[in-house]
Amino acid sequence: MSLVTFTSLTDGDDQLNITTENGLMHTPNVTIPWLDPSIPAHHSCDISTKYGILSSIIAAVCFIFGILYTFFGYRFFKAIMFLTGFIFGAVLVYMIILEQDILPPEGILGCAAGAGILLGLLTMLIQHIGLFLTGFNLGVAAVAVILVVVEQFVHISILWIPIGIFLVLGVIFGILSLRFQKTMTVIGTSVFGAAIGLAGIDYFVELCRMALYIWDRVKTVTSSELCWFSWLMFAIWPAYATLGAIIQWKFTSVGVDHRLALRSHREQGANLQQVRAREKKETQQTRYRHLYQARRVKGDVISQNFIHSMQPKLPPAMQSLTALNTESNNEEESTATTTLTHVTT
Fold first, then answer.
1. pTM of the model
2. 189 with 248: CB under 8 angstroms?
């Protein structure tokens, strides 16, 4: 039998202390990252209404984004890819730096936001990275469910076991997402969106107790017993995700294909290159044609000089004929010279 107590730290955060029957003290780190320090942590089975302002705003935003993910994940493909990268990068960096305790809260938030923006832009601009990360998140969600179920029978104390399972299943689901892009995107956004939305509701119900319980499974630390509504939230997750996947597949994703946008951009680039090559070829042909005309006229000019020099030696009848030919050739010479001048300029 264990005695569960709570102590307030010097910085205002609440911490869970578990005292076992042999007198040993175990203090897992279950500090809620975004909770207001002035609001005490709530660990009983009574629903608390003591919410922080910043925490409530974040929880409400998570709930709204969860609805967007769950029911419109594939339709708003670009926006969802950015949000997937942003949330994954920000949460991962935040939790890692928080565990190391090397920066103040403002520094942790700044680093997390910067990492989230960079990864979000990367997943939005490079489509395959966004698809892989969507599948990876689906694998992470599957591992979270497995770890919670396994914890009810046996406690995993080796940290590398959940980390290894996370990596293996995450990579497998990421590769499957690259192979079956639309199907895995619909399923992945539904599961991830349901998790985000329920995390927001979980804050208003029990101050994110179920979310912290899942995080403790990743860290392989001992947690306190959950309440009945914690398990209710956990049971609603797959049902909510299934409903979102059905609505996406039957309604919101019908007639939408993310590959068409990528294909249209490629076709526009190819058409632009073809037009430029055609214009370049026509310009070269025009220059060669004008150059040929100039060369031909220059030869005519030489022949006209010869005719002018021979004209006085010809009979009068021949002189009249050569005069007519000279006038017509002079007109061609002036036209060709004008064309050559236009091409040169």
1. 0.64
2. yes
> How far is C-alpha 246 from the chain's CA centre?
23
Write out the DSSP string of 9-21.
Answer: -TTS-EEEEEE-T
Q: Are 20 and 14 in contact (CB under 8 A)?
A: no
Sign of the C-alpha dihedral, residues 153, 156, 160, 163? positive
Tens of pLDDT, residues 302-336: 456 666 676 676 676 666 655 555 555 555 455 44
Contact in structure between 108 and 94 (CB atoms under 8 Å): yes
Cβ atoms of 135 and 177 closer than 8 Å:
yes
Helix-helix angle 77-100:181-206, to 10 degrees = 50
Helix, strand or coil, per DSSP, at residue 180:
coil
* 268 half-sphere exposure, CB direction, 13 A CA radius: 6
CA-to-CA distance for 188 and 74, rounded, in angstroms?
10
Query: How far is Cα 83 from Cα 296, in angstroms, rounded to an integer?
Result: 68
218-276 tens-digit pLDDT = 888 888 888 888 899 899 999 999 999 999 999 988 888 877 755 555 555 556 667 66
Query: Residue 38 pLDDT > 80, yes or no?
Result: no
What token pair was written down for 106?
């403002």
Tokens 């946008």, located at residue: 261
Distance in Å from the first CA to the final CA of the chain:
97
Give SS3 for 30. coil
State the CB neighbour count (10 A cutoff) for residue 145: 15
Q: What is the DSSP string of 68-104?
A: HHHHHTTTTHHHHHHHHHHHHHHHHHHHHHHHHT-S-
Comparing C-alpha atoms, which of 159, 157, 158, 151 is closest to residue 225?
A: 151
Q: Is residue 297 within 8 Å of residue 332, measured between CB atoms?
A: yes
Distance CA(261)–CA(269), nearest Å, equals: 13
